[in-house]
From TrEMBL, chains A, B, C, D:
SUPFAM superfamilies: Voltage-gated potassium channels. Residues 214-241 form a coiled coil. One of its GO terms (molecular function) is voltage-gated potassium channel activity. The lineage of its organism: Bacteria, Bacillati, Actinomycetota, Actinomycetes, Mycobacteriales. Keywords: Coiled coil, Ion channel, Ion transport, Membrane, Transmembrane, Transmembrane helix, Transport. This is Ion transporter. One of its GO terms (cellular component) is voltage-gated potassium channel complex. The keyword Zinc does not apply.
Length: 251, 251, 251, 251
């Protein structure tokens, strides 16, 4: 087995702990937005949120220090720095939860379309949930804002991600509109993944049924090769046998 | 022929009766929502609706009891349990109508894209009809609700399923919004199926016309194999004939 | 050459005249809706419209009478009957204009994707134009209607066909909503055709560039077959030459 | 190497300068719309804008005069004439910026999907930016117009290009609606490109994983051909060796 670098070991060991920190981070954010706590409770949640953030900072610094070429690692992981440093990018820390999906995936097996749909569905559900929390956090309290409850926020997020856009709810603040744009991009990707998976499936089904026009597969070629090899071996054998028959022929 | 289990026999025998029960269920629901019956009539329709539900319960219980491994069957058919047990899932009992589509399908033949479009179109029409009934049932009577007639409900359902979403009509109750979300999901799937079928068709047409770049099909390989086999048989025949010619050669 | 039936000759001969009748029909309808003529002029346009309709009826009856099996022809051309008989289906007579597109097509050549895009673009432009005329005709004058000018009608038609659906304009009458549904169906088909053509093009471009994974084409197989045939001919020739060499060998 | 015509040399030499002129043109337009300058400054920007336009005119005339067949060149470059002559088409001069994308592309390499996505993303961002400037320029100041600031214009452009269309913002002037239609067309193309790229990618991934049904590639056929050639060479060699063995056989 190839020897792992310290950096790879660190990433492997912290994969699950960081996913759990991300989950806690999500739970704390949910309580902060939905419960709107006051006093002592609000203070505790702030602390928990800061601790979770601190862990991501520590993870970033350790990975930077363990890198063989730190300058190169820094340039290649600028995105990680942004996620850690910018408050606006906080929800992207939830990308750590991809590990949980990876665990679910083992149940599904190695089917490409199944995996793609699994990631898409879990991604869209998480996107809708987090966008609903974030938009509620931003819009609530602004005079003239339409999104004032979590139910309305979820309803708005779903009608945006499906690109329906009734217009009964829409954000009016700048951060709210940035969240909306992310949802729209997610919606176009969602339509894209659903359509593309279906297209791939239909192409395959059409090919399977329509045997006359069935695409030649590598296994067809493999069978043909086996046949040619059998022929060539037989010929060689035959020719050699007859060469051996004729040593007595006059030279 | 492989011997069928009792469970398979039950499913085969009850396929059509249950589709008819589903149709009756749909008719009863339509009259309940559109006719808004009172007194005796309302009571009779309620009874019919409960009897139809009872039949689905009986079907579920019989299939459970006939299963070879009941625990496994229970786990694998949790969805069936939900459809039977939850009032919200009632419309999904109409999935039984898929048998009717199966009958239509025989007219179309075994063309994959034709079958997919048939299922999609009949599914979308049923979805729009049932969603219109359900949204009208939920929204009508709520103060401030925009959807107050069946015509408005159908108009809203179609503009939602196509993801146009003008916003002149939209649900304001929670169950109404759940129905809307199902319609949106149906709409994205509809766009996906239409696009994917077209993509598959275009890919095939392009390949057929552009003969130089036509994809190698299994039948091409088959012809090639036939040719190689002819060659190898001829060679064997020739070599054996000549072996037979040379018995007199000194050994 | 195969002898044409009288029906085929009729269809070939009337293809262009009927396309011209369809164009006149479109022009008359445009003037009727946009010019809102009164008195004598309105009467003349009505006459022209009825004459155009009469020609479609004559065409339908002649084709029916020339059919070898009239009952079968009637059943297979029910759609044609509906287009001729129902006032609501009038705009579908414009499908005759497909001949004009066929003429344009000769300039483009026989490229599948080019032809598909040509039909789609010309179909969408015609759809938007006719739907704008029809919606204006239906909505104008209704109290509370939002679409009151041709400009607004075109704006509404385009924002519907692209499934954007702002909701600043929308039909409020039943015939207007039927037209809207046709536009939405056209919009989903438009998205489907655009996406599918792009998908087919990208799949082909990826295959062309990525030579290592280039799909095996029929021409690859053809070259391989030529090689095998050359080998088999050479072998036969060689074997026969040597058979001819050995008649003197002792028997 | 093939000798270039004077026209080709001109196009090659002016590619970058014209891209820079297009950038300056974009900067001037941005300042004009966003800064709404007055007096001397406005005059200077007008002059800069006219100078940039003059350079495009000179480029058009030089290319026309250098063409071997000017009539043919004129007919084939009608689109270029429109871009130069019509004020409405001004933003299309930014198509010159495609050279900048070409430079970026070298970093990505020759991967087809990567290039397509690069052009799409940069095209969409430029489209949104320019459409936001243009719509603001058109709508601002009209009584009843909803789009009154650059922020609102960008928000409207993004919700249009993704076909969400909330309807909180929409253009009310004719030029504004023309810009909206271009954005909608861009949106449908965007959905198309995203979906098509994903479809192509999924089809490839499915084929790679599912080895049993892996599509036969040109390299599979190449290996098979190599095997057949080896067999045929061996046979020829063998047969010739034995022909050489038998000259002493009686003739």
């Amino acid at each position: 087995m190839i020897k792992q670098t310290w950096g790879q070991r660190w990433e492997q060991r912290t994969e699950w702990p960081l996913a759990i920190v991300a989950l806690i981070f999500l739970a704390v954010y949910s309580v902060q937005v939905l419960g709107q706590p006051h006093g002592r409770e609000a203070h505790d949640l702030d602390v928990a949120s800061w601790v979770a953030w601190g862990m991501f900072v520590v993870d970033y610094l350790v990975r930077l220090s363990l890198a063989p070429d730190r300058r190169q690692w820094f340039v290649r992981h600028l995105f990680d720095l942004l996620v850690v440093a910018l408050p606006l990018m906080r929800p992207l820390r939830l990308l750590r939860l991809v590990v949980l999906v990876g665990a679910l995936q083992k149940a599904i097996g190695n089917v490409v379309r199944g995996r793609i749909l699994l990631y898409t569905i879990s991604g869209v559900i998480l996107l809708i949930y987090v966008a609903s929390l974030a938009i509620l956090d931003q819009e609530r309290g602004h005079p003239g804002a339409k999104i004032q409850s979590f139910g309305e926020a979820v309803w708005w997020a779903i009608s945006t991600v499906t690109t329906v856009g009734y217009g009964d709810q829409y954000p009016i603040t700048v951060p709210g509109r940035v969240i909306a744009v992310l949802l729209m991009v997610g919606g176009i990707s969602l339509i894209g993944v659903v359509t593309a998976s279906l297209a791939s499936w239909i192409v395959q089904r059409v090919a399977e049924t329509d045997t006359a026009n069935q695409a030649a597969t590598a296994s067809h070629i493999e069978e043909l090769r086996a046949e040619i090899q059998a022929l060539s071996q037989e010929l060689r054998h035959e020719l050699r046998a007859r060469s051996a028959d004729q040593p007595s022929s006059p030279r």
